[in-house]
Each structure stands twice: as C-alpha cells, then as structure tokens.
Amino acid sequence: xxxxxxxxxxxxxxxxxxxxxxxxxxxxxxxxxxxxxxxxxxxxxxxxxxxxxxxxxxxxxxxxxxxxxxxxxxxxxxxxxxxxxxxxxxxxxxxxxxxxxxxxxxxxxxxxxxxxxxxxxxxxxxxxxxxxxxxxxxxxxxxxxxxxxxxxxxxxxxxxxxxxxxxxxxxxxxxxxxxxxxxxxxxxxxxxxxxxxxxxxxxxxxxxxxxxxxxxxxxxxxxxxxxxxxxxxxxxxxxxx
Length: 241
Hints:
Elements: E1 3-7, H1 18-21, H2 33-36, H3 44-57, H4 62-69, H5 78-87, E2 92-101, H6 102-111, E3 120-124, E4 126-128, E5 134-136, H7 153-166, E6 173-178, H8 184-189, E7 195-198, H9 203-213, E8 221-222, H10 228-240
Parallel strand pairs: 1-2, 1-6, 2-3, 6-7, 7-8
Antiparallel strand pairs: 4-5
C-alpha cells in the first residue's frame, strides 16, 4: 500500500511565488516597467529568462540570489508536514511538479534539508552560464491547449505514473496538493479514489468550484486546505485506515 503525493511549489510548499521573490535582488527591488510589461500570457518562462538577464546585467551574483531565495517563507504548517512525510517515506512517494525552476527549488529544499523528502522534481531546467547569468528553459514541449507553453502538469503526471507502472509500482491513492490554475489540468486526470487538495481562496479551488457549478465536477474527491496541518491530518487518517 503506497500513496503518491504530488505537490506544486509556489504558494503551496513556499508561501510566495519564487519567480517574483527573486526581484528583491534587483536594483531598488523592482523591475523596469518595460521589462514588467513584456510578459505575454502562457510565456512565463521566456519572461523569466529576460528577468535573469536584467539581474545579471545589474551585477547580481549567484550567492546573492541564493541568500535571497533561501529566505523565502514556507507555507504555514509545511515544515511539520514535510517532516512527517520524511518520517513515513515507506508509505509515501512524493514528487514536485512546478513552474518554478531547478535552481530555486534545489536551493530552497536543500537549505531546509527537505530534498530527501521528494523522489523527483519536475520543473523548468535552470543553470548559471559561464558569465554567471542564470538561464532557464521550458520543461518540455506539449500539445495541451489548456496549459502554458512550457509545462503541462497532467502530461508530467501521466508519464510518471506510466514509468512507475513499468517498475511494478502502482498507488492506492494519489493526493494532489496545489493552488494555481495550471494545477487544474492534472486534477482532471485523477480518478474517483484520488483526492485533490486545493489551497483555500486560490485559483485552483475557484476553478474546481466553478466546474461543480457547471455540473461537470472533477472525478476525484476534493478537500480544501488553508494550513499544511490540514493536509497532515488527512494523511495521518489515510495511513491509519
């Protein structure tokens, strides 16, 4: 009996958007309006690429970025939840599917010593160039019209589950924990024995509620959380069953 926990990162594990948090490194802690206004819907990763060029041009170095990122606050109760999962790894496989990037997530999880809690992290690949600039790429190419250009989370989840099945691993239940609009696509993939846990007051909860009002509800169960302690209480009940 094994459970799969799927986490979003921004506004779920951490209580901020890691991509906008990095702006604290910019001169005056803000971006020029021309750069801010250059974002096009669905093309966030390209936009962040331009932000990283601006930070590099402004002389912001890797160590300053790392210091800033590792000060990002975890969501209420999340430290307790991740510690609980870490102590029960024989029952839980745990992955992150996020629109952030490998460098930020790696820094944040390692600084808090939570990197061992997660079996895999699926996010946009990032690295520092030979000139010391942070660069980021799209996670993959996909054909899902509902998702941003760089990442379809349901495709990631489906490929992970297929790969696990090939290894002989299937899950009693999938628990999907997220907050954003781009978490709806993978939630639609979940079956009736699975559970979606949208963060209270955020876009994912609103979209799931709207589907129910439109009489096309999601197939899985839904349980809203406001503190990660709510998620931990659910998982504690799950492993007692």
